[in-house]
Design brief:
Layout (H helix, E strand, L loop, with lengths): L1 H18 L2 E2 H8 L3 H13 L3 E6 L2 E6 L1
Antiparallel strand pairs: 1-3, 2-3
Helix pairs in contact: 1-3
Length: about 60
């Protein structure tokens, strides 16, 4: 499970690098994975201080630092 989360973190990073800020749902759809793995990978990237998490209205946007 840890390997899958790490691989998903890499996919999220590359997706954000290519497309800019995205909501959690759009990220999940882009990388084609489940909500838990997406959120765990976002936590991984946040812990490594590689992303910015912003609340915008009712959405949460994820972007690279």
């Amino acid at each position: 499970m840890i390997n899958k989360i790490g691989e998903t973190a890499g996919s999220i990073y590359r997706t954000l690098e290519a497309q800019g800020a995205l909501s959690i749902n759009k990220l999940k759809d882009q990388i084609n994975t489940d909500v838990f793995t997406t959120q765990a990978a976002i936590g991984w990237l946040a812990r490594e201080d590689k992303i910015v998490i912003q609340k915008k209205g009712r959405s949460i946007l994820i972007s690279l630092k």
